[in-house]
Design a protein that fits this description.
Shape of chain A: globular
Number of helices of chain A: 13
Structural class of chain A: mainly alpha
Largest sheet of chain A: 2 strands, antiparallel
Radius of gyration of chain A: 19 Å
CATH superfamily of the largest domain in chain A: Farnesyl Diphosphate Synthase
Strand content of chain A: under 5%
Number of domains of chain A: 2
Oligomer: homodimer
Distance between the termini of chain A: 23 Å
Strand order of the largest sheet of chain A: 1-2
CATH topology of the largest domain in chain A: Farnesyl Diphosphate Synthase
CATH architecture of the largest domain in chain A: Orthogonal Bundle
Helix content of chain A: over 70%
Chain lengths: ~290, ~290
Amino acid sequence: MDIKAQLAAYGEAINDKLDEAMLLPNVPQLLKRAMRYSLEAGGKRIRPCLVLGTSEMLEGDREAALVLGCGLEMIHTYSLIHDDLPCIDNDDMRRGRPSNHKVFGEGQAVFAGDALLTYAFEWMLGQGIEKNDRNYYRAVLEIARRAGAGGMVAGQSLDLEAEQNGIADERALYAIHDRKTADMLIAAVLAGAYTANPTGEQLRSLESYASGIGLLFQITDDILDHEGDEALMGKTLGKDEKSNKLTFVSLYGLEKAKTLAEETARQAAQQLLPFGERAGFLHDMIDLIKDRKN
Amino acid sequence: MDIKAQLAAYGEAINDKLDEAMLLPNVPQLLKRAMRYSLEAGGKRIRPCLVLGTSEMLEGDREAALVLGCGLEMIHTYSLIHDDLPCIDNDDMRRGRPSNHKVFGEGQAVFAGDALLTYAFEWMLGQGIEKNDRNYYRAVLEIARRAGAGGMVAGQSLDLEAEQNGIADERALYAIHDRKTADMLIAAVLAGAYTANPTGEQLRSLESYASGIGLLFQITDDILDHEGDEALMGKTLGKDEKSNKLTFVSLYGLEKAKTLAEETARQAAQQLLPFGERAGFLHDMIDLIKDRKN
């Protein structure tokens, strides 16, 4: 199947499962509306698609992959709600709609995020309790680790600190993106792998692969931002005309950033060699991220 | 052992375990400091003490009870950090010290809360992974349920909504307190019970007991607030002189609120009858809450 069709098929399965997960009969109306508002805002469901694609590659349990993918999407969504708050990024818009706190108020947005995060674990644990499968719990644990104090939240905290004090250096830039972006992609492929019976070697290859596409995602993001700014200004920008924010483009310049993207894509692809032909979907994801236009 | 000594002994064991849990070698310095700041602010550790006491009563696994108790305390602490934020209760002080956002800023306080919540699950799941004990996962699931969108966060969201729009009636008041206060106490005793091999009947009695002490806690809180206000004003306050906030005292008057506290305490004690003499600690907790002076 071509990658766009595959993503659409995965996305539909995920959205159906999310509808099931988000019935929430015991949740007060306002809180439920706030939780659903952001979850249904129509993201690309990249993380759950990676869970499904990895699970399918290793002939894992598709039902478990769907459940874990929904949990990851809830966690990703809560992180966007909190990131958009006035005391953090202060973004009024998200995915073309007013951000959560613009609709529900800041306090309810904090709670909607807290509720989505807690519910992700309630949902994943609740669906797993009758299986009693150790690999399933390893997947949930991996998600908690990568989403938490040493993973995504660490990246968000470092990013905010850097925003306030300036990023010190290249190393700090990589550390922030590894944690803020890559960790949740790593969680996705490892969770997908745990729905099968992965070897340690497979887990290591998949972790490197996801770390690579995380970096690739960030580099291409910086390139797109840079080119968008240039289009807006109608000219080629010199380094000094850009904002102070340290990005891969401000660090290396545009051409070298593009070369780095190519190199990162090549290295990610190499990690898929042990999986042979079955790695088609994960392979196509690299190109999709590298060649995206937004 | 007398209740004060028992609480001190449990508290020490909990604090030692929390020190172990909070080493956090992979967490950035600022985030780690913000997480520890609120956790080490010296709460009474009521919830973990209930886990330990219930576990001991049923001859459960003490080590598991310690781990689950620490998880609950992390979740309780995160909820206080977020509740104190300017967009929610706007409290500058907590437990006699500046609240988290006054020290670390609002954005970092949001992340410190998010990190504590996520880490609670990382910690509990990480400690449980080698056991592969279904009752242990039931305990973690119970904690997620009671802390989340249908439990504590529901109570917080309803409370904020009521603060903004006024509480409609008695039923709403009970609904808020059940979820905001009682649910985490229920999670504590049920988690403690799951460290043993509880019967369904035992679980039901313990849930009713904890629901009762949650209500008792709230009624006595309202009575203490009322008496504190009176002492401050140097006279007996009429209903109309109090704030508009609906409390058990404003709803029933002081005397009837005291009667309701006695009745609630009696009903909670009845739930402990099936456990006989082994329920000493849980029994003493009722009196402790009923007769507290702050």
